[in-house]
């Protein structure tokens, strides 16, 4: 049975269970969040209303002895898009939630004043958070664990959330950023600074031997995989060299296809920085979070691909030490690096074109960027323009929609879609907005994609097979998130095959699924999210990319002259999903998938 803890932050608490039918159809994690938000959240709920829900969930693998299963998904009606918004984080907090007795945590209402929440099995309490206000995410985690003990796992928001930054993020354990943006702003709106959960005994599984056998297969693959070795050493920035090779890094907010020498060298110069302690999830054979040591000796998180491409190429920051400082600022302040980089680059270009007269953000000025980010942690007499996020900012400056890096209100990740067809389609169609990590289609940046993908691999800028392969990624990502297995292990590094995922799910749940069941489960979750986006999104924004990235080809670089054929791709994409010509799930498709929704 799926156990749900529902807390009205005004003072009420309820424990309940979801029906076996819902658990069977949606499994857990992201699947249950999608079902709950579509079927139980009133459709007219405003994202920043007290009645909006913030839902944390961990799949049935979380809290067991299975590796790479300690993370969580958090979902809500996003203030950036009006659609379902998700953030994903790794670490150990999700495992702690399930070990404490709950699969799903639903937060409603507003706390009367700033508070933090403690969950210790049946003991659930809210405490005043006055002492924590103004603390960054690393300091908040350290202070609460010093008070509570090392057997507690903490997630929190930072000063940016407290000060109404639209793309505020949630950070788990002072290290694991929950990305992309939106959920941190809702948590802040509820006046909730942190949630601490106490670790308890490991959850038993029905088939220990099957679980161990499936994990052993994955371990052996990881031990011999070149891509796993690269991700283990560099995290998502392992894809940087191939992205540069195919022209997916562009400068000055996508204006320039030819890289400057400083930007082109960023990957190699960052690789020379010394590494310190691993921060991988418990037992994972591919620990992929590390710290660097700055010149002043301070240990800071290694920048991931989104920070390097976003602040490096998109904003023209070429100093490795500056990128380290920016990544550390984003983590401590609690802001999504991808969204922050998009907002900064947009303001830089508005200044370049004379639309923004402030003159405070020239291209490549890392000191100005750090100053602007620090300002987000301070209460302003008037709301800082940068705090709005690129989606809302694009409505402020005349003509800004053409070059604002956003889709449906959510910032676009910084890899240029004109160089990677599958990524372009992922950005254009994602129901959460312009973040390709919804489906994680990194295979265009691999020398040898895994053999279990459908169709044959094709040139990154070709069209053949891209729709089918994106749909595969969408479904597999949805099932990974529903099961509670790390998407970096399962998709970014492609170390878990569908057959191995089926074995892990069967061992953890006692229920055997077929390959067709797996595809159907993923498609059901994706369709529910699509349904929510089409019916309840703020402006019914169509699928597509901003004008620059869909209509203006680059003049230089490997992707020069190429534009993704979005219209042709969309027609095939809708058809293969079984949706109508406008991209709406049809009643027949809903019935086929067992989605009971008639609003």
CATH class of the largest domain: Alpha Beta
Tell me which CATH architecture of the largest domain applies here: 4-Layer Sandwich
Provide the domain count: 3
* Overall outline: globular
Mind summarizing the main beta sheet? 6 strands, mixed
Q: How many strand segments?
A: 17
Helix content: 25-40%
Tell me the CATH superfamily of the largest domain: Aldehyde ferredoxin oxidoreductase, N-terminal domain
Radius of gyration: 22 Å
Mean pLDDT: 93
| Span of the ends, CA to CA | 27 Å
Helix/strand-derived category reads alpha+beta
> How many DSSP H or I helices?
24
**Numbering strands along the chain, what is their spatial order in the largest sheet?**
2-1-6-3-4-5
Give start-end ranges of low-pLDDT stretches.
none
